[in-house]
Amino acid sequence: MHVTQLVVAALGFFHQVHGCSNFLLNHTTSVSTQASPIVVSARTMDFDADLATVLEVIPRNTTFNDLPVFACPTCPDFSWRTQYGYVGFNVFGLNVASDGLNEQGLSAAMLYLVGTKYELPSSADKRPALASFVSYMLGNCATVDDVKNAIKQLQLVEPLQPGTGGVDVGRIPLHYVVHDKHGSTLVVELVDNQVHMYENVSAVITNEPPLDVQLAELQALNKSHASPGSYSPEHRFQRLSLLNEAIGEWYAERVASGAPNPSYANGTEEQRAITDAMHLINTVVVPLGDATQWSVIRDHVRKTLYVQTQQNQVPRRVRLDELDFKSSSSRRAIPVTFGGWFADVTDALSYSGNTQRTIDLPPRSVLQAASQAPPPKASSAQSYTTPEPTTPSPSKSQPATSTTLLSSTSSTDTSGASTVVLLVLGCVAGVVIVAVAAVMVARRQRMKKQSTMDSKMMLEILTP
């Protein structure tokens, strides 16, 4: 097929888009935000037709020729050279980005918006008419401020929609969202032939209605009720907004209290942010119809992408700092579906050198006897001490938290009986805590001794 026919055929699919969701993670880090900043965003690409998406490395100084403009056969050619390299989610075999992240940590994305009315191209306006918004911004902007300045120098126009025998087969109504490594967000919508820019107004963007209407509906939502559950643009917008707000508040409370999050006991701040974003974006993944073909998590500070596809939920990672954006010969692409769809750990479980195991329970009668052991003899101002679960050596005394169970000021008979009950309950609780602590200490000591062997084991397994 001739390249011109390919372009026309490819553009014809855009009118079928009815989905996509995007958000900037509301993340509270437990360390200095300057020492370890977390700026993570995510999006889904929901589409009925196969986009044939590829991840493509676009080096610096790549020459671009812009798409033709709808209703403007006389619009002059527009081309540019990229200032920054980036990884683009290019579709239909064309160097036309639907999403991407550049080497400066800036992302740009297109999403469907019914009701879009682009700027009308004017020959009297000397500004170039731009139809490839995402590709242009990824290649020429480092920050949201750069994007705003660039928009002032351009006419944002509609890409040409194809026709068959003069029949209108659809338009390409889009709006755009940009995030940078500083955590700034810019939403760009074209309504009534005018550009509307919303900076840091909303962390979430989906589809119709326009953003100002979405925000008004969100404000009117009764947040005490269950989260909206359908896949409509409004419900996806509201669901992501509520969950994103809640996850930020929950972490902020735990960080302020100093309480650890046991689910991430072995995770890093980076891992926590990426998995949080995955959990949230998965709540708006569309399984059927205009289904989610792929989703991406973008780490703007570390310049890293994590990609999942409909039938491959294993995250595929792309580290932009490891790519060569200097040479034109480094331009290459892989399908978005690239990579294995599972991680096989059978070898690790069958490896003879792996001696890790859990601790077997003693007979039930032993546990019952321990739980029914008599309480310690009561004395004035006696207190129960909770041992530290992470105590490496039980022979050393450790700081403890004390809960007073008996006070010398007790003077009534009923208080004495209550004290005995409390002591019994305290002893039972103490036995359980000591047992759990012993298991944890033993397991950690065992794992520590095992660590060197584990590394050796994995090297043997992974070495051909």
UniProtKB/TrEMBL annotation:
<keyword id="KW-0812">Transmembrane</keyword>
<dbReference type="GO" id="GO:0016787">
    <property type="term" value="F:hydrolase activity"/>
</dbReference>
<dbReference type="InterPro" id="IPR029132">
    <property type="entry name" value="CBAH/NAAA_C"/>
</dbReference>
<comment type="similarity">
    <text>Belongs to the peptidase C59 family.</text>
</comment>
<dbReference type="InterPro" id="IPR052193">
    <property type="entry name" value="Peptidase_C59"/>
</dbReference>
<protein>
    <recommendedName>
        <fullName>Choloylglycine hydrolase/NAAA C-terminal domain-containing protein</fullName>
    </recommendedName>
</protein>
<keyword id="KW-0732">Signal</keyword>
<keyword id="KW-0378">Hydrolase</keyword>
<dbReference type="InterPro" id="IPR029055">
    <property type="entry name" value="Ntn_hydrolases_N"/>
</dbReference>
<dbReference type="Pfam" id="PF02275">
    <property type="entry name" value="CBAH"/>
</dbReference>
<keyword id="KW-0472">Membrane</keyword>
<feature type="region of interest" description="Disordered">
    <location>
        <begin position="367"/>
        <end position="414"/>
    </location>
</feature>
<feature type="signal peptide">
    <location>
        <begin position="1"/>
        <end position="19"/>
    </location>
</feature>
<feature type="domain" description="Choloylglycine hydrolase/NAAA C-terminal">
    <location>
        <begin position="34"/>
        <end position="222"/>
    </location>
</feature>
<keyword id="KW-1133">Transmembrane helix</keyword>
<feature type="compositionally biased region" description="Low complexity">
    <location>
        <begin position="368"/>
        <end position="414"/>
    </location>
</feature>
<feature type="transmembrane region" description="Helical">
    <location>
        <begin position="420"/>
        <end position="442"/>
    </location>
</feature>
